[in-house]
């Protein structure tokens, strides 16, 4: 937890004052993590009633931004009743529903909204992104042409438009993120000028890259912060907000397990581990080889030869009865034997909480929050 707090502190220090840092809770909502981040973040981005309630109960003092592509009436009502700091509206019909609810729900002050837009990003701008939520047909946010249709709905409502939100891609390095931020803010400025709208703030999203292939290579927060400072200077009067998830908490978690067996099949070596992608679905979801370290243990007590390999590529699998239960394929490991331990790095985001825990009914791992 001290490493996480130090990392978050470094990220915060790299950002100019006029950039707000929200944590995208879906990356890892563990209460210990939310609390460790609290001194370093401006607020939290939540995307369901479950997250909203959980975060409000865990860190009640910090503001929330409530987003998500499919919000139910009950969720919007809850967001209004609890007075979240911002609601990110993703379509005209959602705007109509929110405006209607704002007439019924007693609110202390006008609910403040950002319109989420799906902007064209220009060819090549999202190349290399692991996931794209924008710049192509997606259910996330409004097409820019639909903005004009939203304005009469806003004008006749109790809602207050504060600006725009765009989260277009995940997995971009700092230069690509900055180019995207520039595009988003420029578009927002032009749209605000054209329609005479306030542009108090622009939320430029998250998606800062985590490189699982080279976990020692970190996102260039210093360069990104300097670029955002220049961008903010060109738009005085507009607060910029970012909402990273993975790049804040990914590095702080490890998934440690033991090797149950090592065997060969048709000439290839497999290390079968206790646990599996029902605990750590990240490599299956992202189709990568998850980074790990083998921790050798010399306490083999069984009276027969210890299964193991030395100096050949190994595929690391789990206990699930499916060929998709793979952590890493044909990777060089040096030595690995039954009874050794394997520690998977970068397991602090989109790990346990995106995994299919009940598949095969194996026990859950234990969680330790150290430091
Ligand atoms: C998931 C998500 C984020 C965080 O993305 P990361 O890749 O974890 O940084 C931020 N904003 C929105 C709207 C999201 O859906």
TrEMBL record:
The family this protein is said to belong to: Belongs to the Orn/Lys/Arg decarboxylase class-II family.
Protein's name in the database: Type III PLP-dependent enzyme
Organism of derivation: Streptomyces pactum
Orn/DAP/Arg decarboxylase 2 C-terminal domain mapped to chain residues: 251-348
Keyword Signal: no
Pfam families the UniProt entry points to: Orn_Arg_deC_N (PF02784), Orn_DAP_Arg_deC (PF00278)
Residue ranges annotated for the Orn/DAP/Arg decarboxylase 2 N-terminal domain, each copy included: 5-249
Keywords: Pyridoxal phosphate
Cofactor(s) listed in the protein's UniProt record: pyridoxal 5'-phosphate
Domain of life: Bacteria
